[in-house]
Recover the amino acids of this structure.
């Protein structure tokens, strides 16, 4: 079975601090995809990144970076120099790589991030 | 290129009424997915459709819920005889033929009184 665990329910930091959101996943697929989505207070879901299971290179996009470690089944997300606008619920997610399993995305329960001014 | 369009954004229904949620995928996208987000929870997959076909409905409740994606027009998620427990945000996503990334709409928030 596929499963995504985000153990941190809520995180609150002061602006400009760095913050890491943890994500641990379970899957039996050899090919799979990992995602992060952001849900701001307005409620929409914003795609941040997709990573496939064969690519373990870390990725950096501005203040955002992602650390994918297959050995520990983790796909952590770090925001550097956090800003108030980063306040949102962040979802880690997983989908399979086969035709039938790629149809659905399995979401974690989300981490609510609050950035205090 | 317009994003995934869902309407209405907010829908209020009384118990026993029907709810119809619409989703227009992004241009060029032929795959549509519906997810439900209960309060304070993550999104849960409901159904995956291509034009005129239901591909995977493993997440759909067995009764009262149905979905379609006709040859012309938007995808429709229909909930008959709504109950209070149906109150949730319903998100639609679409993906291109290679299905690499699902792009989500803004959601429809259904409130059942």
């Amino acid at each position: 079975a596929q499963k995504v665990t985000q153990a941190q329910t809520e995180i609150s930091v002061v602006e400009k601090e760095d913050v890491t959101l943890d994500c641990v996943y379970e899957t039996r697929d050899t090919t799979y995809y990992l995602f992060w989505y952001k849900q701001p207070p307005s409620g929409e879901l914003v795609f941040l990144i997709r990573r496939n299971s064969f690519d373990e290179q870390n990725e950096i996009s501005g203040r955002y970076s992602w650390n994918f470690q297959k050995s520990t089944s983790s796909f952590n997300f770090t925001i550097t120099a956090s800003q108030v606008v980063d306040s949102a619920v962040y979802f880690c997610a997983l989908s399979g790589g086969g035709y039938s399993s790629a149809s659905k995305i399995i979401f974690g329960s989300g981490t609510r991030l609050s950035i205090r001014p | 290129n317009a994003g995934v369009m869902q309407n209405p954004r907010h829908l209020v229904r009384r118990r026993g009424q029907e709810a119809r949620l619409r989703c227009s995928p992004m241009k060029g996208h032929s795959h549509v997915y519906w997810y439900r987000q209960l309060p304070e929870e993550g999104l849960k997959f409901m159904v995956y459709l291509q034009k005129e076909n239901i591909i995977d409905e493993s997440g759909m409740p067995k009764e009262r819920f149905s979905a379609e994606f006709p040859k012309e027009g938007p995808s429709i998620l229909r909930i008959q005889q709504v109950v209070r427990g149906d109150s949730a945000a319903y998100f639609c996503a679409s993906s291109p033929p290679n299905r690499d990334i699902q792009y989500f709409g803004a959601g429809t928030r259904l409130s059942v009184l």
About this structure: The mean pLDDT of chain B is 92. Chain B touches chain A at residues 33, 35, 41-45, 48, 55-56, 58-59, 89, 91, 93, 99-107, 109 (CB under 8 Å). The two ends of chain B are 36 Å apart (CA to CA). The first strand of chain B starts at residue 5 and ends at 7.
